[in-house]
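User: Structure with cytidine-5'-monophosphate, tokens only please.
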Amino acid sequence: PSVFQCAIDGPAASGKSSCAAAVARTLGFAYLDSGALFRCVTLKHLRRGTESTDWHDFTAATDLRLTALPPLTGTTETGPVRPRVFMDGEDVTAAIRTPAVNSHVSAIAAIPDVRTALLAKKRALGGGIDGTLPVPGGYAGVVMDGRDIGSTVFPHAQLKVYLTAAARVRAERRVREAGGDLDLIEQELVKRDALDMARAVSPLRKADDAVELDTSAMAQDEVVATIVGWVRDRM
Ligand code: C5P
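Assistant:
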């Protein structure tokens, strides 16, 4: 029995995490936020200062835990639900979403030794490279969102989605969720996407066999229902 792997990739603030979480909760799968792992390593590095680092060991030695989300039982819930994230035993759920982490994470995520160490962690969380290993928690399927999940982490995923939306729309959604200046936030998103697409090791790109979904004019419920339908078609 193999684990169903659903990969959701796309640019910053395209709605990946809230949709991936809702898809997972609807299906009773585990939701795994790979961006949180890069954010944790970035936070730890920022706190330590700038001394030189053996990036592979630094990353591999960091204890990272993503808590499970309860299954969705009805349609009455509103607002995004984020799993709590623990780094070396500390709850860093809020600390990994600060402007400082936002502006440094793409540079850290471009370091090859960081990517290698986190690739191993991502696969360990999600059933191995092809879903033949058991998943922590015993889930029948996983939904992992990120930048390289379909292209690199789970190349055999049964479903790969590439979620996009116009930069302005993404910035507007981010402002609605967390506040801030619209123009500045749009600039920050576009800059992060450019860095993520330009890096040498597993850049952000649509996998050849991914389905692209432009959510600019879609409500989140529709996006979730669409992806859930695609998973069920492939189960
Ligand atoms: O998804 P989120 O915006 O939290 O990701 C933060 C950053 O982590 C991204 O901008 C990217 O640099 C990096 N990342 C990555 N590969 C992933 C997930 C995230 O490089 N699979």
